[in-house]
Structures are given as structure tokens and as C-alpha cells.
């Protein structure tokens, strides 16, 4: 579970990374409050908000009475808040405040604001310039009221628009450099104050001169904030994804695997920057590969590596929650597990007890292992590759399962062919996991599979093989259709769309403001 900054029976203080809205932006994406509700398995109440691009401290109420009391404190301006922000403009004053009366433009007054002297002002913000470096400036802002975009608007009035705030005239940047530093108020006789540590970028203004570096740091810190319980452990986690441009990266237990996804290799200066990134983030065992192609390992070139061990590791072990896996560097682009399916494997583990589970396109059988751990009655793994099925057997043994047990079956055959065969045999399943490739070609028969052409027949076969009330977990990385388009395609094929449940993308992969690369949904058979 991610770290809670502070909590009591009424309140929960948490740290929101930039790029995540407080509330759900659409049916297939969570907001920060929904993410925490799912994490804690309890309802929460939002009493104040942060803009999507603003990072920092948020407080949620745990019950209706606390929500009412906290809302009254905010409405009565009884909550003290401090923010940090960065701009490339120098203010006229070092210490000043901006006030705004109803139906009048805001105006500037030099010096600090005297608390309690609101005099009917609609909004008041106090500013202090606290640091500067290389023509960049760090400011502290104290809003004594809570109007929408108050700090950003008052900064514009002060002719210091925030870095990354294009809406209000700020210079374009990978993120909005605005951070909610602290919040303080009186609660049931006790004064509560909580802080959220700002990004390293606020402490190293010179870093902001390099947009690429700033984006890398922002990307890592987002995972560090959301998944701090996994960072620097034996667990697996994506650290850098599409928002970083050419760089991808995963924590795979003790090994950090970085990849440069570009047809041209990184420059010498970019390689040096990668080495500096590893040092800044204190990576111990790491490697950096150039990956101009995605299908063939021979198109991958190792550029940099550093290890605390004397010998290069071609294989090692890592964990996903309570499951152990073996990773390999020499067996294709993927080291052994699709990390963006972590939450769905957990769902299978928690919902398969005493059920029959069929895992199609099984790869190294991560879903199968989750089903075994969850107490499935029978687990069938189907994949064309014997090599990957054998890898799956290794993973079973690592976790104390005998892969030769009768309830575990390993079928080295085409998944569509297996469904047709099992149809003839009359076999039925309670859960079917189907994660097909976007395109494949059978080496012997030369038969091709195209997801946009063949998905209807594939899903039809899966639903036919499900028991009544059974569940199909279907996922695809096909990028030409959005999730909405997938829903439309399912409706055209007359699939039971009323029983469809979308499975949101994991936050170590996709920014919630963007379409997820992996689309996944559950179809339940009536």
C-alpha cells in the first residue's frame, strides 16, 4: 500500500503527483480520490481540490461529519496553506500580496498580508521570492482564500506567470511547477499541520534548463510518490513510460532495465545523461539498451551497465506482490512478464478459488501462476511457444507448485485452435484470460491473426467456452482503436455489452489524461 502522510479517524493526508485530477475525468479513468478509495477499500470525501497539474498535499475526509466540518473550515478561511512555484520572471518586490475585491481587478500591495484583515476582499494571496538560479526563481505563495486558479491568476497580475502554465501565459514546460507544500488547521482542539515534500526540481532550479531531464525526473517521482512501497525492493514496477519520450524503464527487482526506443541511437551526451540519471536516483544495478526494433532481440544493443556484482547477470529473480518470477535478458525484448497486467493478475488470484481457469496466449504464464496461487481447481496454459511454457513451469516451481500436477496443463498450440478443439471436447471454463497479439503469423501453416479482423470470432469462441456466469478477461495493445471504439465494435458484434466492465490502466504506465496503450475489459456471460 502507498504511504499515507498522516491520518486519524476522520482525516487522510496524502501526496498527489502532478498530472492526476482530484476526481475521475471519465468512466474508464480514475481520479486521485477514486484511486485511494480502491486502495483503502473505503469511501472518502473531497473537501478541497488541487488542479490536475498541481502536485502536493491533499486531505480527504473519511466520514460525512468530518467532511461537513472540514468544508466549513475551508469556507471560513480557517485553513492555512502554503505553495511553492517556479517562474522564469523576477518579481518587482521580494515580499508582497495581491488582493481582489468583488467585480474589480486584482491589485498589488507591497509587504506581508496581515492575517484577519480581509476587509471583504474576495481573494488574497501573499507572495515571497525565496531563491533564484540561472534566471529561474522560486516563490512561496500563501492563499488566504480559495478561488479557482487563484495563485496562478495572482502570479500573472504580479507579472510572474508560472513555468508550465500555458493557460495563463507561462512558458511551455513538461509540467506545471506549482506544489501544495503544507496545510494547517485546528481539528478537535489539536493543531494539525502536514507537509508534502516537493519535487527535486524545486531544490535544483538549474535542472529546469533541460526539459528532457526535467521530464525524466518528473516521471520517476510520480511512481516514487504513488508506489513508494515498491521502490527499491524486489518488486517489479514501470519507472519511465511514454511521457518521457524515447526513454522507457522498469524496476525488475534488484535490476533496473532502461531502454532507448528510437530508430537512431542516443547521442554521447544523452548516454552521459542516462549515467547521471542513474546516479541521481541511486540505481545500484542497472543497464541501458538501445531498442530500435521491438520483435527481434538482435536489434537490441547494450549501451551502458553498472552492477554491484562482479559478473553480468543474464537472469535473476523478482517478485510481483507475493509471486516470484525469473527474468532473462537474453530471450527477446521482454524479460519475462508484462508488468502492465499486474492488477489483472491480482484480480484473477482473488477471484479464481475452486474455478477452472484457461489462460490463452499465455507467454510465461503469469496469469496461470496467479490462478494457482488463488486456489484454482484447474489451470490450463496455452501458447505456441514451448520455450515460454517451460519458462512458465520454472515460475511455478519457484513458487512451490509442481507443474506436473494433474490440475496444471500446458498446451503448446495455437490458442484459436485450442478453443476449437475444446469446443469439440465440450470443455468449459469459469475464467478465460485472452491477451492476444495485434498481429501474428503461424510459422508452419502461414495462417495470420489480425486483432481488428479476427477479434469477433475469437471472443465468440471464448464466450462459447465459458460456463454460465463465467468471466472473460480480454486485453489488447492494439493502438488504432480507442476503448470507446472497442465498445462500439463489441456492440456491432452483438456481444453482451451490458455485462462489460472496463479495467483501468495502471498508474505506473499511463497518465490518466491520455488513452491507455493497453485496453482491457471483463465480459461476463449471462
In brief:
The chain is α+β, with helices and mostly antiparallel strands. The protein has helices spanning 32-40, 64-75, 150-157, 200-203, 211-226, 268-280, 342-351, 366-373, 386-398, 415-425, 451-464, 483-492; strands spanning 6-7, 11-16, 45-46, 55-61, 80-87, 95-100, 107-110, 123-133, 136-143, 178-187, 190-195, 236-240, 247-252, 255-260, 285-290, 301-306, 315-320, 323-328, 356-360, 378-382, 408-411, 429-434, 439-441, 448-450, 466-476, 500-502, 519-524.
Could you characterize the architecture of this molecule?
By secondary structure, this protein is α+β, with helices and mostly antiparallel strands. Helix content is 24%, strand content 30%. The chain is built from twelve helices and 27 strands. It has helices spanning 32-40, 64-75, 150-157, 200-203, 211-226, 268-280, 342-351, 366-373, 386-398, 415-425, 451-464, 483-492, and strands at 6-7, 11-16, 45-46, 55-61, 80-87, 95-100, 107-110, 123-133, 136-143, 178-187, 190-195, 236-240, 247-252, 255-260, 285-290, 301-306, 315-320, 323-328, 356-360, 378-382, 408-411, 429-434, 439-441, 448-450, 466-476, 500-502, 519-524. Strands 1, 2, 3, 4, 5, 6, 7, 8, 9, 10 and 11 form an eleven-stranded mixed beta sheet that branches. Helix 8 links the parallel strand 19 and strand 20 (378-382). Helix 10 (415-425) packs parallel to helix 11 (451-464). The radius of gyration is 26 Å and the shape is globular. It starts with 5 loop residues before the first strand and ends with a strand.
Amino acid at each position: 500500500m502507498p504511504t499515507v502522510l498522516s491520518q486519524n479517524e476522520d482525516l487522510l493526508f496524502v501526496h498527489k503527483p502532478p498530472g492526476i485530477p482530484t476526481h475521475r475525468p471519465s468512466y474508464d479513468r480514475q481520479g486521485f480520490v477514486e484511486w485511494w478509495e480502491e486502495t483503502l477499500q473505503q469511501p472518502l470525501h473531497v473537501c478541497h481540490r488541487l488542479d490536475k497539474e498541481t502536485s502536493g498535499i491533499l486531505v480527504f475526509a473519511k466520514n460525512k461529519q468530518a467532511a461537513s466540518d472540514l468544508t466549513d473550515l475551508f469556507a471560513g478561511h480557517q485553513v492555512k496553506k502554503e505553495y511553492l512555484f517556479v517562474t522564469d520572471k523576477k518579481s518587482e518586490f521580494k515580499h508582497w500580496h495581491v488582493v481582489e475585491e468583488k467585480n474589480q481587478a486584482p491589485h498589488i500591495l507591497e509587504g506581508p498580508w496581515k492575517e484577519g484583515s480581509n476587509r471583504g476582499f474576495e481573494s488574497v494571496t501573499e507572495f515571497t521570492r525565496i531563491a533564484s538560479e540561472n534566471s529561474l526563481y522560486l516563490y512561496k505563495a500563501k492563499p488566504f482564500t480559495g478561488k479557482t486558479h487563484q495563485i496562478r491568476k495572482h502570479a500573472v497580475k504580479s507579472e510572474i506567470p508560472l513555468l508550465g502554465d500555458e493557460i495563463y501565459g507561462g512558458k511551455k514546460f513538461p509540467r506545471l511547477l506549482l506544489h501544495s507544500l503544507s496545510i494547517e488547521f485546528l481539528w478537535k482542539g489539536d493543531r494539525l499541520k502536514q507537509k508534502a515534500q516537493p519535487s527535486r526540481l524545486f531544490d535544483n532550479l538549474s535542472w529546469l534548463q533541460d526539459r528532457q531531464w526535467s521530464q525524466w525526473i518528473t516521471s520517476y517521482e510520480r511512481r516514487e510518490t504513488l508506489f513508494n512501497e515498491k521502490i527499491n525492493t524486489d518488486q517489479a514496477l514501470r519507472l519511465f513510460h511514454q511521457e518521457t519520450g524515447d526513454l522507457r524503464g522498469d524496476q525488475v527487482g534488484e535490476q533496473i532495465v532502461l531502454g532507448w526506443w528510437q530508430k537512431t541511437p542516443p547521442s554521447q551526451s544523452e548516454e552521459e545523461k542516462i549515467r547521471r540519471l542513474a546516479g541521481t536516483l541511486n540505481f545500484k544495478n542497472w543497464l541501458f539498451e538501445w531498442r530500435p526494433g521491438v520483435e527481434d532481440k538482435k536489434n537490441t544493443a547494450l549501451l551502458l551497465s553498472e552492477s554491484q556484482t562482479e559478473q553480468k547477470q543474464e537472469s535473476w529473480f523478482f517478485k510481483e506482490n507475493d509471486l516470484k518470477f525469473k527474468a532473462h535478458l537474453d530471450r527477446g525484448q521482454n524479460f519475462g512478464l508484462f508488468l502492465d497486467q499486474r492488477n489483472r493478475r491480482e484480480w484473477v488470484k482473488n477471484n479464481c478459488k475452486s474455478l477452472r481457469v484457461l489462460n490463452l496466449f499465455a507467454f510465461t504464464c503469469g496469469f496461470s501462476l496467479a490462478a494457482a496461487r488463488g486456489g484454482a481447481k484447474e489451470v490450463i496454459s496455452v501458447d505456441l511457444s514451448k520455450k515460454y511454457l517451460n519458462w512458465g513451469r520454472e515460475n511455478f516451481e519457484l513458487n512451490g507448485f509442481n507443474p506436473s500436477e494433474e490440475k496444471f496443463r500446458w498446451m503448446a498450440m495455437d490458442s484459436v485452435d485450442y478453443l476449437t478443439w475444446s469446443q469439440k471436447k465440450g470443455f468449459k471454463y469459469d475464467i478465460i484470460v485472452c491477451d492476444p497479439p495485434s498481429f501474428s503469423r503461424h510459422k508452419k501453416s502461414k495462417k495470420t491473426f489480425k486483432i481488428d479482423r479476427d477479434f469477433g470470432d475469437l471472443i465468440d469462441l471464448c464466450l462459447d467456452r465459458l460456463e454460465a456466469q463465467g468471466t472473460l478477461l480480454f486485453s489488447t495493445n492494439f493502438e488504432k482503436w480507442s476503448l470507446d471504439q472497442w465498445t462500439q465494435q463489441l456492440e456491432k458484434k452483438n456481444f453482451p455489452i451490458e455485462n462489460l466492465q472496463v479495467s483501468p490502466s495502471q498508474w505506473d504506465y499511463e497518465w490518466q489524461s491520455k488513452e491507455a496503450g493497453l485496453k482491457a475489459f471483463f465480459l461476463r456471460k449471462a
